Amino acid sequence: MNYKKLLFLLGLAIIFSTAANAQTYKYIGAVKCKMCHNKPEKGEQYNKWAAGPHAKSMEALKGDEKTNPTCLKCHSTAGSVDSGLLAGLKADEGVSCESCHGPGSAYKATAIMKNKQMALSKGMIEPTEETCKACHLGDKPDGHVAAKKAWNYAEFVKVISHDDPTTN
Ligand code: HEC
Ligand code: HEC
Ligand code: HEC
Ligand code: HEC
Question: Does the beta carbon of 113 sit less than 6 angstroms from any atom of ligand 1?
Fold first, then answer.
């Protein structure tokens, strides 16, 4: 093996080990977030999510569709990630908190959550329009029902809003 090829392989090894590290964050499920994110005076995020379209997204699937990976990719957080990463997240939760905020196993501790930069370095994701578009404008199977309304981020994000009135 020549030197260049060896360097190339070493580079690949580093890239793959970094990717493997990023994958170790696990999905803990909405009930864990609820412990801290359901106070009425702080915006009761859990109740708002539970009453919204995402928590009900498994109800749209019938029979075999509930286990069809093609449907689960967008209708279920649990069904869209490697089963080895499930640590509490349930399939029937539908599109759960962690589809938008990132897998919570390493950022869920209060001390980390209170420090946004630290939370971001432990797997938290700040959702943007791109997060939504992966599902809303992603490749849907032939014959999929048409969206009731054309995609409009500002409008759609209002429908699922769960702001904390005590933060900026
Ligand atoms: C042990 C309590 C606790 C748990 C469990 C917890 N959080 Fe938090 N979270 C906090 C605290 C404290 C803050 C800081 C803001 C505040 O005081 O409400 C926060 C902040 C956040 C923020 C705002 C970050 C920012 O600054 O923009 C998001 C988003 C969030 N949490 C999502 C989640 C999700 C999703 C889960 C479950 C996977 C979760 N949290 C679990 C306590 C918790
Ligand atoms: C690329 C992501 C994606 C895939 C893959 C996908 N869906 Fe959907 N599905 C959505 C989105 C987003 C909506 C909400 C559309 C809207 O804005 O009204 C939806 C809505 C639906 C609805 C309407 C629900 C309602 O409350 O009106 C049904 C039924 C449905 N999907 C069934 C399926 C089935 C069955 C499959 C698999 C064969 C599937 N979907 C695959 C993203 C997807
Ligand atoms: C479909 C995507 C999506 C889901 C599902 C979702 N969120 Fe959010 N969340 C958002 C968006 C978008 C924001 C607004 C971010 C911003 O304002 O910068 C947000 C904001 C937040 C905030 C910060 C509120 C503030 O004003 O400081 C918290 C805390 C939070 N979410 C917790 C949760 C919890 C807990 C769940 C599940 C019970 C959940 N979210 C489910 C997309 C989502
Ligand atoms: C993991 C995939 C996924 C992500 C990410 C996602 N959604 Fe959804 N969303 C869905 C599915 C599936 C439905 C359909 C639920 C149903 O009706 O059964 C839906 C429904 C909705 C609806 C109700 C639409 C209607 O007309 O009934 C709104 C509003 C919405 N999403 C907003 C958002 C926003 C805003 C974001 C990003 C912050 C987002 N979604 C991210 C999958 C997703």
Answer: yes
Locate the ligand 1 atom nearest the alpha carbon of residue 102 and give its number: 35
Residue 108 identity: K
CA distance 107 to 113: 6
Which ligand 4 atom sits closest to the C-alpha of 148?
Answer: 26
CB 58 within 8 A of CB 89: no
Question: What digits encode the pLDDT tens for the residues 131-164?
Answer: 999 999 999 999 999 999 999 999 999 999 999 9
- 160 in ligand 2 pocket by Cβ < 6 Å? no
Q: For the beta carbon of residue 46, count every other beta carbon within 10 angstroms.
A: 20
Looking at residue 5, what is its pLDDT?
A: 73
Check pocket membership of 139 for ligand 2, CB cut-off 6 A: yes
Q: Which residues of the chain have pLDDT under 70?
A: 1, 3, 6-23
